[in-house]
Design a protein that fits this description.
The complex is a heterodimer of chains A (184) and B (283).
Chain A (H helix, E strand, L loop, with lengths): L4 E4 L4 H5 L6 E10 L2 H12 L12 E3 L27 H6 L4 E4 L5 H9 L3 E4 L5 H5 L2 E8 L8 E15 L6 H9 L2
Chain B lengths: L4 E4 H17 L3 H13 L3 H20 L9 E9 L2 E4 L3 H15 L22 E7 L4 E8 L1 H5 L2 E5 L4 H16 L7 E9 L1 H11 L12 H15 L14 E11 L4 E8 L6 E4 L1
Parallel strand pairs in B: 1-3, 2-4, 7-8
Antiparallel strand pairs in B: 2-5, 5-10, 6-9, 7-9
Classes of the chains: A alpha/beta (184), B alpha/beta (283).
Chain lengths: 184, 283
């Protein structure tokens, strides 16, 4: 295992292809939350030729719906939801410029192919450490779909958000490699 | 038998509220002990790192009043009502829902309940799911369980062939857990319900999750063996903490059983992530 890499958004294809499954990452900069309902809305906007809630070029999406923030702070507890539910939407978004996704759990063959083809990366965030994760969010602001409650889109300014590369641009898959290595 | 005992519904509201506030912020000692033991034995570096972060998160949640997980769950409540309890001054179901509403508002918890078809959020985490059992005595036991959606999604029920037997049950559970893999936030706790009717097997599996982590079935030696053997199979899979590889994919397997129809062998698996939250009180 290499050392821990610090990255800054927006991401580029060259940066993504330099990453390998299993790399530990500290992510910095602006990222956007979006989960099931927000993905559906983004697709309605794409289909209708409407403006998107945030620029996709080089963007990173965090599949997350945080708890409401207490007064005086900008972030509640935050962590990943299961990424596979967003699989049907992801190849198109990667084609349109999305570079990174943060979530937990396996991705479809189609998503893994699209990560390779469009030079993206899928990061794993740990599930169930949402109080710790909140400390890595410096600022949070709702940018779209407020009516969706916890499923609305927020822009987060993150500092050293701890992640692991699951799927890289070379076909690497940490989950599969882990099983091959540790299965008895 | 003692006489009838009055319990005001407002006491139920306060108890339910307190239980959900506590459950979402603090892991039980049993869960913490199991996680610390897992940290000691895990052989993979990323797996140990994951367990370190889980343990650190519990400390941070305790000191900040932030929930342990952003998924503060669907609110599941188990009531054991003594038959000599008389609930007064209110409506029991309303009292429970009020307690949930207050906890999720005042605790700044996520409201994670929605219309199944329109997906419109109900905005107060209601309705709760309430299971009521009438038992002897004049006490009221309330168990609160915020249940996360990720691990619930990876749960399942199978109506096996009656001839599938012990090995069939073992295979189904191990396969279900391995298919869940990283999606269910391992290391997990696996609740298994065998027998009964379709819904009863699922309820047995969920109730099995209420046991202290790693306490084996006290009624049936066959289930104790089944729990050990399934845990061994799961932890050979290599999935490890968070799916990052290793030997601790599950912390425990808890199995419960009851007789079933001669034509049936229902088996349910209810998966619980490592944020295993449940708190109880006796009024």
């Amino acid at each position: 295992m290499k050392g821990i890499l610090a990255l800054h958004t927006p991401l580029t294809g060259a940066l993504c292809t330099s990453l390998r499954s299993g790399d530990r990452i500290l992510l910095n900069g602006e990222i956007y939350t979006a989960r099931d309902a927000a993905h559906q809305r983004i697709f309605e906007a794409i289909d209708g030729g409407c403006p998107l809630p945030f620029p996709l070029q080089g963007a990173v999406i965090f599949y997350a719906g945080p708890t409401p923030a207490r007064p005086g702070v900008s972030m509640g507890a935050i962590g990943p939801t299961t990424s596979g539910r967003m699989d049907p939407f992801t190849p198109k978004l990667l084609e349109m410029g999305l570079k990174g996704m943060i979530g937990k759990g396996k991705r479809s063959v189609e998503v893994r192919d699209a990560i390779r083809r469009f030079e993206g990366v899928y990061f794993g965030a740990m599930g169930g450490i949402a109080a710790l994760m909140a400390r890595h969010v410096r600022h949070a602001e709702r940018v779209a779909y407020g009516d969706l409650g916890p499923e609305g889109i927020m822009r987060l300014d993150v500092v050293d958000l701890p992640l692991v590369v699951i799927n890289d641009g070379h076909g690497g898959d940490l989950y599969e490699e882990a099983i091959r290595r540790y299965r008895q | 038998m003692s006489g009838i005992r009055d319990i005001p519904c407002s006491a139920v509201t306060d108890a339910v509220k307190g239980l959900f506030l506590e459950a979402n912020n603090a892991l039980g000692e049993d869960v913490l002990a199991a996680l610390k033991q897992a940290r000691k034995i895990e052989i993979s570096e990323l797996g140990r790192h994951a367990l370190d972060q889980i343990l650190e998160n519990a400390v941070i949640a305790g000191s900040t009043s932030l929930p342990l997980c952003q998924d503060t769950g669907f609110s599941v409540i188990f009531l054991e009502v003594g038959q000599n309890v008389h609930l007064v001054a209110g409506d029991l179901r309303e009292a429970i829902q009020d307690g949930v509403r207050q906890a999720y508002t005042e605790g700044y918890f996520r409201k994670s309940v929605c219309d199944p078809l329109t997906r419109a959020n109900t905005t107060d985490n209601l309705p709760a799911v309430i299971y009521t059992e009438i038992v002897p005595g004049d006490r009221l036991k309330i168990i609160a369980m915020p249940k996360g959606g990720g691990s619930e999604n990876m749960s399942g029920t199978a109506m096996l062939l009656p001839t599938a037997g012990y090995e069939g049950v073992k295979c189904y559970v191990a396969e279900q857990v391995q298919a869940a893999g990283s999606n269910a936030c391992p290391p997990m706790i696996v609740g298994v319900g065998i027998g009964g009717t379709i819904e009863q097997s699922a309820l047995l599996a969920k109730k099995a999750l209420l046991r202290p982590v790693g306490r084996s079935n006290e009624q049936d030696a066959r289930l104790r063996r089944l729990e050990r053997e399934i845990l061994y199979e799961i932890n050979k899979s290599g999935i490890g903490p968070q799916g990052y590889g290793g030997i601790v994919t599950a912390l425990a397997v808890h199995a419960e059983m009851m007789p079933c129809h001669i034509a049936s062998l229902p088996v349910s698996v209810n998966i619980q992530c490592h944020v295993a939250r449940h708190k109880e009180i006796i009024l």
